[in-house]
Automatic annotation (TrEMBL):
Keyword S-adenosyl-L-methionine on entry: no
4-aspartylphosphate found at: 53
UniProt keywords, alphabetically: DNA-binding, Phosphoprotein, Transcription, Transcription regulation, Two-component regulatory system
Origin superkingdom: Bacteria
Residue stretches making up the OmpR/PhoB-type domain: 132-231
Keyword DNA-binding belongs to the record: yes
SMART domains on file: REC, Trans_reg_C
Protein name: Response regulator transcription factor
Sequence ranges assigned to domain Response regulatory in this UniProt record: 4-117
DNA-binding positions: 132-231
Amino acid sequence: MGKTILIADDEPEIVALLRLFLEVEGYSVVEASNGKEALAYIQNISIDLAVIDIMMPELDGYQLIKLIRKEYKLPIIILSAKNQETDKILGLGIGADDFISKPFSSMEVLARVQAQLRRTYEFNEADPVALDSQTCVGDMALDHHSCMLYKRGQPISLSSIEYKLLKLFMDAPGRIYTKKQIFEKAWSDQYFADDNTIMVQISRLRDKIEDQPRNPMYIKTIRGLGYRFAKKDELDEN
């Protein structure tokens, strides 16, 4: 069955154009002209991915994304005329998975949608035996069936990117990963020196799992090289 894409944008011409390209590829499309309408769709029907504008009436895109991320893990792509670096960092920081600036290429949007769907749902098609297992380091247990992290037995909900980052790190505690390696493994895409995206996602992950995010115990920054996850003996010392 084809995936269902939500387009939340108050510009009818943009919605119509994106609908055309997405439906040709076999996707079902749901339209919302404001944030409240978009949130209602997400709460009441199964949405696989959302393309969200920032400047919308009633509930803007930033507010909408924050509300979505309280309960849902679906991938979110921001499509906005607000294209300053600070806008992109803010959007990624509150939970968006990608950011596309207006004006845009419809083919680029389609490619980004397809990439996010692959990244988000591909692990559901993995080996069922592997999905039943957990990766444990110290007091952390990453469940590959639910894509949930358990810290000292307490569940922590993860986005698809956060899950992939933690799996990468926890599968090889102590190994240093460069930013290029992290991006290409977690985002399944070629690295184009997109340091902001990595830094924002690492910061979000630290906020979730660290007791003191500004003094991280689990995800260590290796200056000039990249990041690594603490080894079990390091964690046992704390």
